[in-house]
Design goal:
The protein is 49% helix and 4% strand. It is mostly helical. The protein has a single domain, classed as Glycosyltransferase. A three-stranded antiparallel beta sheet has the order 3-4-7. A two-stranded antiparallel sheet has the order 1-2. A hairpin with a 4-residue loop joins strand 5 and strand 6. Helix 5 runs antiparallel to helix 6 and helix 16 crosses helix 17. It is globular. Bound molecules: (2R)-2,3-dihydroxypropanoic acid. (2R)-2,3-dihydroxypropanoic acid (DGY) binds next to loops.
């Protein structure tokens, strides 16, 4: 039962308006191409009224998968000068042009959901093709992005995490040499208020990391071994573990015994390895530097994905719930992307406070599955209130509920249709 048919209609219209034919842009202007994890959540939204279009969204993304298995974070299906860094800056030489980095591995989880909505038929050809693509992508993660051998995900650019501007990356970014960056023109601040976007000094670092990749011909081994930015991301580590659990269900349905065995090994490795991210002082799983080994010590919305990944001892889970409770003292709405009071907290600035509904969705799903239906419902209700108050923004202030970033945002519309608006 819908809570608000008018908002349902608006959400469908946003997805249809942002549809560029087989793929959807996250929002007009600010993000004019296909983004990896955006498309995964958008597919869920389409599935609420057009199943065929839902599958197609992911199929279009996966058609740009690299030979080494990486699914890129942006696919540049057409030119648009309103975005920096465009395909020429990345210089990956792919057809269609793509960026040279990846994004959170949530695809397998969403493929499983679409497949189950269609009755979980083992012969489903669309599921089978996407299973194969996800398996290759997970293999890429485990072979290129697990230098410590503990099943956790190392990122080589903060843009890979999707939580681009989180304070978790500040110390590692501060060590990136920007002396060779040269001049370039940002486009993001032409679309939205600069106060909501990363600062210039941060952008220079993003570009420097990109240039390292380009200069080594996007050799992913070289980037993982010597790149200027190498962090183990708590968000992607949790997402990959969850995605492996969902991929295993598909492997077993198909009867791919070899694939299933490989996935089971990855799951066991990550389950045993996840403690490496636990920060006793913070009482949470936190991102950690892969080279300096220091923990960020920051409680972010990604810390709560432990429930979604199905990890944590009873004591760790109790501490996470304490942290969740603590957040409610400063936040009118959950889940802030950074705990208020942390250094660089800013309720309007990109990933330093604002709420993203896709993270809320994953966190709430995990909390519900792990026996915390009350917290799951609180997060769902807050998410619905944000849309009812402010519309379909990219993100929202946890203090005032005001929208920030891009407007008419595809995945926010999708989250309304499949989750918080229901
Ligand atoms: C941007 O341009 O800010 C994007 O988030 C990069 O993925």
């Amino acid at each position: 039962m819908s809570r608000n048919p008018k908002l349902d209609q608006q959400a469908r219209e946003i997805l249809q308006r942002n549809d560029r034919g087989g793929y959807t842009v996250p929002t007009h202007g600010l993000y004019p191409f296909q983004w990896n994890w955006d498309s995964a959540f958008v597919a869920l939204g389409f599935a609420a009224f057009d199943r065929d279009r839902a599958w197609q969204e992911i199929e279009t993304l996966v058609s740009a998968q690299w030979d080494d298995g990486m699914i890129p974070h942006i696919v540049f299906h057409q030119n648009d000068d309103g975005y920096f860094p465009g395909p020429g800056v990345w210089g990956t030489g792919k057809t269609p042009p793509t960026s040279g980095i990846t994004q959170p591995p949530v695809l397998a989880t969403i493929v499983r959901a679409l497949w189950e909505q269609e009755g979980a038929v083992a012969a489903n050809p669309r599921m089978r093709a996407l299973y194969a693509a996800c398996l290759r992508s997970h293999r890429w993660f485990h072979s290129y992005r697990d230098p410590l051998g503990n099943g956790l995900v190392m990122v080589t650019h903060n843009w890979e995490t999707g939580r681009d501007n989180s304070s978790e990356w500040d110390d590692a970014l501060a060590r990136v040499d920007t002396s060779g960056v040269g001049t370039y023109q940002r486009r993001d601040t032409g679309h939205v208020d600069a106060a909501m976007r990363p600062k210039q000094s941060e952008y220079d670092r993003y570009v420097a990391i990109l240039q390292f990749g380009k200069n080594c011909g996007w050799d992913h081994r070289e980037i993982a071994d010597h790149g200027p930015f190498r962090m183990v991301d708590v968000g992607m580590s949790m997402e990959l573990l969850r995605a492996n659990r969902d991929l295993l269900v598909l492997a077993e349905a198909i009867g791919d015994a070899e694939g299933a065995a490989e996935i089971r090994d990855w799951i066991a490795l990550s389950e045993a390895g996840i403690d490496w991210l636990w920060n006793e002082e913070a009482g949470a799983f936190c991102s950690r530097d892969a080279t300096m080994l220091e923990s960020s010590g920051l409680v972010t919305n990604a810390s709560f994905l432990a429930f979604y990944a199905g990890v944590g001892s009873d004591t760790q889970r109790a501490r996470l719930l304490e942290a969740l409770d603590r957040l409610t003292t400063n936040a009118e709405y959950l889940l802030p992307s950074l705990e208020a009071g942390s250094r660089e907290y800013d309720h309007r600035r990109y990933w330093r406070g604002p709420i993203w509904l896709v993270v809320n969705y994953m966190a709430a799903q995990g909390l519900a599955e792990q026996g915390h239906a009350d917290w799951a419902e609180r997060i769902r209700a807050d998410s619905a209130r944000l849309i009812e108050k402010s519309g379909f923004f990219e993100s929202f202030s946890p203090e005032t509920g005001e929208g920030s970033g891009g407007d008419d945002f595809s995945w926010t519309a999708a989250m309304w249709l499949v989750w918080c608006g229901k």
